[in-house]
Design a protein that fits this description.
By secondary structure, the protein is α+β, with helices and mostly antiparallel strands. It has three domains: about 10-250, 2,3-Dihydroxybiphenyl 1,2-Dioxygenase, domain 1 (Roll), CATH 3.10.180.10; about 260-300; about 355-405, no CATH class. About 50% of the residues lie in helices and about 30% in strands. The chain has eight helices and 16 strands. It has helices at about 20-30, 75-85, 145-155, 210-215, 250-310, 315-370, 375-385, 390-414; strands spanning about 10-15, 35-40, 40-50, 50-60, 65-75, 90-100, 100-110, 115-120, 135-140, 160-165, 170-180, 180-190, 200-205, 220-230, 235-240, 245-250. The strands form two sheets. It has an eight-stranded mixed β-sheet with strand order 2-3-4-1-5-8-7-6. An eight-stranded mixed β-sheet has the order 10-11-12-9-13-16-15-14. It is elongated, with a radius of gyration of 59 Å. The model is unreliable at about 300-320 and about 330-414 (pLDDT under 50).
Length: about 425
């Protein structure tokens, strides 16, 4: 018949640390716990898993390193403490009652390993398989694991379930439990292991490797793992940033489930991507079809517009005439500008020629006085090439005048 009592069950876990704030920040990030002040003592902070409270923290600035202390349930705490003392244990804190919260005591087993015993004021909850975020395994590394098992089995009724040969240097690993269900193990610690004999609690996590990555990224030191253990489970052990040793555990069923979920997520993502691509392709095709339809709808309008143009030739001719007139105006504009420029240029040239003639005439008169009319004619000849045709006619008349004079003289002589 199964033992329905709390005797021999790990019921609480307490962290003694020099830095409670740092510890709270670390464990909430790594294990997904949250912190909560205890209703009966606000100075005491509890660690709360998704399923409920499972531990607490005690600040001890004088402590050089953090450490975890497990509490084991009992139905009769005074009797358990007396029995432990008789079996060689040392009482660190005698039975202490907490109003409305039960009783506890702190002991050291014959090999110096610290643990607590606890009596709850209410009936224990039904025992069930540990959930994610809860403690799933407890391990004792000690100098003499067989003597340790005899001590604890006498106090709590644990039973040996199996022995596994781990080889040198650790040797045999003894698993123990209650009513045929394994709840932990014991083995002989080696001199190379850090710290002294102690209990180590394992918290169930979804993925050991992810937990390793997360814990080491925020200050934890990886001591062991990831390591596969009998049955296909995986474990890892750490020191937290304050030096407190803790461990995590992923069961084989979680590994298989996680792999299936990952594969399903990848498949769903690929399917979703394919659907999105198909939807995008369909949308593109619909958009192309809509553009084609819109283009086709515009074509009859263009034809109707052309027909309207043909139906009104007078309007078309009028429009053509307007275009021609506009084009002519554009062509005429440069011509008018050119003519204007030419007129201005001609006027300037005429002014220059008039000035030249005046200068030439003045010079001719002066030269005529000195050299006679022939020199004046030659001096006036050069600018005459630049004047208009009318000026040339006048010079011709002057040249012909002496000839008429000669004829007149000849007639008089007769």
């Amino acid at each position: 018949m199964a033992d329905k009592t709390v005797r021999g069950r790990f019921v609480w876990h307490e962290l003694i640390t020099p830095d409670t704030a740092g510890a709270h920040a670390f464990y909430t990030k790594v294990l997904g716990w949250r912190t909560q002040a205890w209703d009966l003592n606000p100075d005491y902070t509890m660690f709360v898993a998704p399923s409920g409270p499972l531990g607490g923290s005690v600040g001890r600035p004088s402590e050089s390193a953090a450490r975890w202390r497990p509490y084991i349930g009992t139905d009769h705490i005074e009797g358990t403490v007396d029995q432990a003392r008789s079996l060689g244990a040392r009482v660190v804190t005698d039975v202490t009652e907490m109003p409305n919260a039960g009783k506890y005591a702190i002991l050291e087993d014959p090999q110096g390993v610290e643990f607590g015993v606890y009596l709850s004021p209410s009936d224990p909850a039904p025992e069930a398989a540990p959930k994610l975020g809860e403690y799933s395994w407890h391990e004792l590394a000690t100098n003499d694991f067989r003597a340790a098992f005899d001590f604890y089995s006498a106090l709590f009724g644990w039973e040996a379930i199996a022995e596994h040969d781990m080889g040198a240097p650790s040797g045999v690993y003894l698993t123990f439990g209650r009513d045929g269900t394994e709840i932990g193990g014991m083995f002989k610690r080696t001199p190379e292991m850090p710290g002294g004999p102690a209990w180590l609690g394992y918290v169930r996590v979804k993925d050991v490797q992810q937990t390793i990555t997360k814990a080491t990224s925020i200050g934890a030191t990886l001591l062991l793992g990831p390591m596969e253990v009998p049955g296909g489970d995986f474990i890892a052990q750490f020191n937290d940033p304050q030096g407190g040793m803790f461990a995590v555990h992923t069961v084989a069923a979680d590994i298989q489930r996680f792999a299936s979920e990952t594969e399903a997520a990848v498949t769903a993502g690929e399917a979703e991507s394919t659907e999105e691509q198909a939807a995008a392709t369909g949308a593109a095709r619909r958009a192309t079809a809509q553009k084609a339809a819109a283009k086709k709808a515009k074509q009859p309008a263009k034809k109707a517009k052309g027909a309207a143009k043909k139906a009104s030739p007078a309007a078309a001719k009028k429009k053509t005439a307007k275009k021609a007139a506009k084009k002519a105006r554009k062509s005429a504009a440069p011509s008018r500008k050119s003519a204007k420029k030419k007129a201005v240029g001609a006027k300037a040239k005429a002014g220059k020629k008039t000035a030249s003639r005046k200068v030439a005439r003045g010079g001719a008169k002066k030269r005529a006085t000195a050299k006679g009319r022939g020199a004046a004619a030659r001096g006036a000849k050069r600018p005459a090439r630049k004047v208009a045709r009318g000026a040339k006619s006048k010079r011709a008349a002057k040249k012909r005048a002496p000839a008429r004079s000669r004829s007149k003289t000849a007639r008089k002589a007769k």
